[in-house]
Amino acid sequence: MKFIWGKKEFTLMIIRGANRRVIRLKLPQSTFIIIPTIVSLVLIGFLLTVYFMDLNLQETTESLQQVNTEQEQSYSKQIATQNSEMQKLQDQLLEFSDQTDQFKQKLAEIQKLEHVISIMTDNSASNSNNSITPNSENHPQVSQDVGGVEEPVTADEWIALIGNTKTDLSDLISNIEGLLTSLTASEQKLVEAEALREITPTIWPSDSRRKNSGFGIRKDPFTSKASMHTGLDIDGEIGDNVYATAGGKVIETGTHHDYGNYILIEHSKGVQTKYMHLSKILVKKGDKVSKGNLIGLVGSTGRSTGPHLHYEVILNGKRVNPEPYLLSSRKDD
Asked: Measuring CA to CA, which residue among 296, 304, 301 is closest to residue 275?
């Protein structure tokens, strides 16, 4: 290859061999300016491209690092929040488990009370078989630690605690339903028992407990002959209080030559009580009285040898011994 310079152009000769055709290329002189210029521009463009790409890469890297840092901080906050929430949930679970145990103990106490109520209402004790005893083997008790080595709770242990608590709650719901049914029945029996107690003459008709004469055959104080004493004579002073021994309705009051001033009360179920020799009657026919109400005052009217109360219990029209009915002194005893 050979260059031949002219004034405004140069010839590029390419000689491929001695016997081969010579190739001539005529190029203007400006080619030596244009080509280097183009090469320089391309090189500068390339360098600028590399520079801006590197700058953009740095900016992108910094942006990604900043985003990554922000994400890491956000994740760290989320993890910290989740750990805090998890700790709260664990604390609540422990508290809930402890409250479940306490509730089971309270329920056991209520069931014991229900058993007592069943006995009081003549309910067979065998019908109350739902008592609960906290199962310490299946359900760990939560208490205040006083020492020992602290070990982290494993996932299996948490799962076991949750399962035991769920089982305990299911048992509690079942036992509560049974207890409510039993208590409802016991409540009805208590209402019936209270109603029966209210109309049963079980209290003493006066504050005195001194018996002058009991129910049965005795020597008549006036004739000294054997006679049937149809009630209970209770010693007292004139003006002592006389109480209704059961709730009921006053069906008769008046004065009789043998009874003196008297009161007859009908209670129900064929039971009546009669109070005689009173110095004063404080109720009238048709009045409703409650157990323990003041109805009269002790006296010595009628066929009487001294101040006392003659008290009778009449069952289905027949006078019976009052003493087996006398259990307490007043309604509020």
From this structure: 296
CA–CA separation, 58 and 40 (whole Å): 26
Tokens representing 100 are: 């479940």
Helix (H) or strand (E) holding 4: strand 2-5
Q: How far apart are CA 263 and CA 287, in angstroms?
A: 11
Tell me: the pLDDT tens digits for 172-214? 766 776 666 766 676 677 777 777 788 889 899 999 889 988 8
- Please give the angle made by the CA atoms of 89, 91 and 96, to the nearest 5 degrees: 90
Is pTM beyond 0.70? Reply is: no
Q: Are 273 and 295 in contact (CB under 8 A)?
A: no
* Three-state DSSP state, 176: helix
Q: How many CB atoms lie within 10 A of CB 39?
A: 10
> Nearest CA to 312 among 276, 258, 269?
276
Contacts (Cβ under 8 Å, ≥6 apart) of 29: 8, 9, 10
CATH topology of domain 211-325: Glucose Permease (Domain IIA) (2.70.70)
CA dist 186 → 108, 113, 122, 267 (Å): 17, 11, 10, 25
Residues of the chain with CATH 2.70.70.10: 211-325
Tell me the average pLDDT of the chain.
77
Kindly give, in sequence order, each residue whose CB lies less than 8 Å from that of residue 256, ignoring residues fewer than 6 positions away.
Answer: 262, 276, 302
Give the number of other Cβ atoms within 10 Å of residue 326's Cβ: 20
Give the model confidence (pLDDT) of 201-212 as tens digits: 989 999 988 998
pLDDT in tens, 137-161: 444 444 444 444 456 767 777 777 7
Q: Which of 310, 262, 292, 119 is nearest to 202 (CA)?
A: 292
pLDDT band at 134 (very low <50, low <70, confident <90, very high): very low
